[in-house]
Amino acid sequence: MKSTIPDTGVPITPPTGNGGDRQEASLHGETLLRLRDYVVEGNIPEGGRVPERQLCEMLGISRTPLREALKVLAAEGLIELLPNRGARVRQLSQRDLEELFDVMAGLESLAGRLACEAITDAEITAIEQLHYEMYGHYLHRDMHGYFQANQRIHESIVAAARNETLKTAYANFAGRIRRVRYSANFARKRQRWAEAMREHEAVLDALRRRAASELSDILFQHLRNKRTAAIEHLTEPREDAPASP
Amino acid sequence: MKSTIPDTGVPITPPTGNGGDRQEASLHGETLLRLRDYVVEGNIPEGGRVPERQLCEMLGISRTPLREALKVLAAEGLIELLPNRGARVRQLSQRDLEELFDVMAGLESLAGRLACEAITDAEITAIEQLHYEMYGHYLHRDMHGYFQANQRIHESIVAAARNETLKTAYANFAGRIRRVRYSANFARKRQRWAEAMREHEAVLDALRRRAASELSDILFQHLRNKRTAAIEHLTEPREDAPASP
DNA sequence: ATCAGTTATTTTGCATTCATTTTTTGTCCT
DNA sequence: AGGACAAAAAATGAATGCAAAATAACTGAT
């Protein structure tokens, strides 16, 4: 067999009890949730083949609901379906990444704008808390903690926009670049770290003043800078690694 | 039979020759395209049931590819699938519409911002042409022509953003509110018409100057105003109709 | 040994079939 | 008549089966 899925010999989650606390009546829905996570979490290498047969065994289901789920994932942009040649995990070109980051920037920019119309003082306080927490991680050079706090801040802004449609779209795009986002989060680029901290302070400032268009600009620029950092990181992947093996 | 699909007795498009000039290798892909158009064009009343069986006969296919297409359309937000109770054309609440308009506003706002970075003088000239054309329709009270020119202007801005991901997302959301958008395009509200013309002039002005954040603001506000007009139109549907039958 | 051509195996796409669930129809009772 | 219950019909969800396409394996020639 030439599949690219690491065969652990066990289903992704226990076959009977469903994995998380989510409930899904239909097998198709359940499969969709599990498969989406499985792909988003990077269990299959980019561009790797995804043989239906093997996934069926993995999930303990027949091909019908699996294929339905694959079609949906393809529509979401996570995988691509080549006619008669099966599904592959979508490989994102540099251009794809640039586009995705820009769309994310647009959505967050919008979220900020809308948030200014509806956000409560309590919500702002909560975001400030997250900001301080993030600052702590920054001081301790805790990349992972920093990343998580950062994510939660951005999610809080999206939540404050009070727009479920936006939230869903945001989650969808975030899923597509999740792997890259994490790994490319200016690993060891301390300069960019400091810069990002300042940008976040500007975000908070604009948010407190409910300055919608200003916040919109700041958020867009913030994500634009993140995009630049991410692309750079991918172009010159490891600045501390030896030049040759 | 209690379906809500008008039964014309003929397939949506001739079974053998495919409807448009689009080509799709798989039956599933073909079905998806045809069904999406069929729904977007409003052939099924809102909230109407979509019996698989009937659609299969209509399209001359078996249930498997049809069901795959339905799952995708559900993921796109055009229809909803109730467990064990089939597919319904998604009924948009007023809140849903508000959210959709806002997201569209965000995407167009982003498109304008990005367009400022890459748009050519020729493209701007083309948009100006469309603007004059639209002005002509405005003077002649030609709603349909006005609407189409308007659409093309917005599409041109999105195209000038040079972002396929954005373009796809935009098309998706546009599809969801297509019906409402058209019917609600301030029918007979001359005041709003004039206002929209002025806003479009401001758009062109900012575009010529490549004033990204300014254009972003203008486009957002423009769409916001459209949203208000659309919602109003739905709330008080016909201002010239008699109050009682 | 390498490569073209051919055959065998696997994989995909779609149709069909089977088991449940829902909806409708029919019947009986008040 | 009207409503509650039960049986029949239809629709959905998922598994299986089958034909076509693609991939892999094999053969033989250079």
How many beta strands in the DSSP annotation of chain A? 3
Overall mean confidence score, pLDDT of chain A = 86
Structural class determined from secondary elements of chain A:
mainly alpha
Tell me the number of helical segments of chain A per DSSP (H or I, 4 or more residues long).
Answer: 10
SSE string of chain A, helix = H, strand = E? Answer: HEHHEEHHHHHHH
- The share of residues in extended strands of chain A comes to under 5%
List the helices and strands and how they pair.
The structure is a homodimer.
Chain A: H1 27-40, E1 49-50, H2 52-59, H3 63-76, E2 79-82, E3 86-89, H4 94-118, H5 121-139, H6 143-160, H7 164-176, H8 178-183, H9 190-208, H10 212-235
Antiparallel strand pairs in A: 1-3, 2-3
Helix pairs in contact in A: 1-3, 4-6, 4-7, 4-10, 5-6, 5-9, 9-10
Chain A binds a DNA duplex (30 and 30 nucleotides) through helix 3.
Report on the structure:
Chains A, B: Residues 1-25 are annotated as: Disordered. Chains A, B: Keywords: DNA-binding, Transcription, Transcription regulation. 2 copies of one chain form a homodimer. With 245 residues, chain A is mainly α. Chain A has 2 domains: 1-91, Winged helix-like DNA-binding domain superfamily/Winged helix DNA-binding domain (Arc Repressor Mutant, subunit A); 94-235, Up-down Bundle (Four Helix Bundle (Hemerythrin (Met), subunit A)). In chain A, 65% of the residues lie in helices and 4% in strands. A 3-stranded antiparallel beta sheet of chain A has the order 1-3-2. In chain A, a hairpin with a 3-residue loop joins strand 2 and strand 3. In chain A, helix 1 packs across helix 3 (63-76) and helix 4 crosses helix 6. The A-B interface holds A 25-26, 28, 64, 67-69, 71-72, 75-77, 83-84, 96, 99-100, 102-103, 105-107, 109-110, 113-114, 163-166, 169, 213, 216-217, 220 and B 25-26, 28, 64, 67-69, 71-72, 75-77, 83-84, 96, 99-100, 102-103, 105-107, 109-110, 113-114, 163-166, 169, 213, 216-217, 220. Chain A binds a DNA duplex (30 and 30 nucleotides) through residues 2, 26-28, 51-53, 61-65, 67, 83-86.
